[in-house]
Amino acid sequence: MRLPSALPPRVRRLLVHPAAALPGHEDERRHGGGGLPALRRRGRRDHNTERTGDGRDAVSGDDTAGDDTATDQDHPATRLPADEPVLEAVNVTKHFPVRGGLRRRGGPRRVVHAVENVSLRLYAGRITALVGESGSGKSTLARLLAQLYPLTGGEVRLHGVAVPTPRGRAFREYVSKVQLILQDPFGSFNPVATIASTLKRAVAIHQPAKRGAEQQAVIDGLLAQINLVPQRQFTEKYPHELSGGQLQRVSIARALAASPEVFLADEPVSSLDVSIRLGILNLLRRLTEERNVAMLYVTHDIASARYFAADTAVMYAGEIVETGPSEAVTQQAAHPYTQLLIASAPDPSRAGGDRVRDIGQPPSLIDPPAGCRFHPRCPYAMERCKTDVPESFEISAGHAAKCWLYADDPEARAKRADNARTVADLTAPAPSA
Asked: ABC transporter domain location, by residue (predicted)?
């Protein structure tokens, strides 16, 4: 049975193994996923699978080019971030009003607490993954950074300067420097405009001095950068005549026309076939390094976050609950929700994972739980979790989690010991056959 590839891992797991949702479930068979390496042992990644189809990439643009494949030594996680972030979210909050329905006379207006007091930093030449289930607020945060929605609270800063009001030259400069790459490429193109017309418009807006032959040279250069060559084979086509992978490459080229400093990639490969996802991710990584841009990679797939990003932030119910280097977050997950995401990602090389069970559903963001928003689903929940918003506790250098498990009190220490066994299970290799 083929499952929709855009479903979150937790949902796919329940569809394949319905017993995983039952309290008495003890032994679940794991199956390997296609297209991306599993969570364990990046150093043993099969580079041959990354290079599949490189002989025809120049024509189709759908498969991974050999030049796009990076080694472990080239991985951005091996480099330290710059001192100052390019883009920064500071206590960003977004509430959407609930329209319709009953409201008590004189009562407060009901809102959806989509994003709540989120702070995040993006650094030049470095990729940060934003991971979470569907509905956790990831895409909303990306759109707030792109200034598609007004903020309810907090502020967004580019090079330390708050974003100006949505008008005037300063704001236009901001939106050209911060480019959003959407999940569905077919929904972001004019269906009656050719690829050449779309790219000409982008170049005319962001590079108005380029005209005629110079403009065409820029377009040819953009298509060459995204491995769509020969260019004339693609420029006169309409969006529906390209595959999903080819059109997503064109959307990346359109963003490159603005010479951006930040990419906001909102699940750029979730709607694509698994056979071509790696090519798009490697292309984005190469462009990030060559152009020294900062990137936010939004995904529900924590396995791809570890492979692709230097840093990972985990988001749940509108809040960021864990941040740190991707290796630390995925191999030494501190927050119980992060552990749930890891356990939901298929990994045939992992022995454990059955200790982590999903005991509930995400909360309503119209009436979110008090205290820690994860406490109704958390197997380690304590009384203070139901009333007090968790502080951020440092787990290791650069690795932090908002969870009362790491408070310095006897109950937390006892729960933390049990949680440590869960982490050990998640990272234990499967026994040899």
From this structure: 87-342
Residue 87's closest CA among 43, 32, 147, 5?
Answer: 147
Question: Angle at Cα 163 formed by Cα 159 and Cα 166, nearest 5°?
Answer: 150
Is the overall model pTM greater than 0.85, yes or no? no
pLDDT digits (tens, 9 = 90+) for 358-400: 677 889 999 999 999 999 999 999 999 999 999 999 999 999 9
Which residue is associated with the tokens 């989120």?
118
**Using CA of residue 322, residue 326, residue 330, residue 334, what is the dihedral sign?**
negative
Q: Which domains does the chain have, with CATH numbers?
A: 9-98+109-427 (3.40.50.300)
Beta carbons within 8 Å of 110's beta carbon, 6+ residues apart: 97, 98, 101, 103, 366
pLDDT at res. 360? 76
Residue 79 makes CB contacts below 8 A (sequence gap 6+) with: 125, 126, 310
E runs forming strands in 68-159: 87-97, 111-122, 127-131, 153-158
Which DSSP category does 366 fall into?
Answer: S
Q: Which of 322, 349, 315 is nearest to 427 (CA)?
A: 349
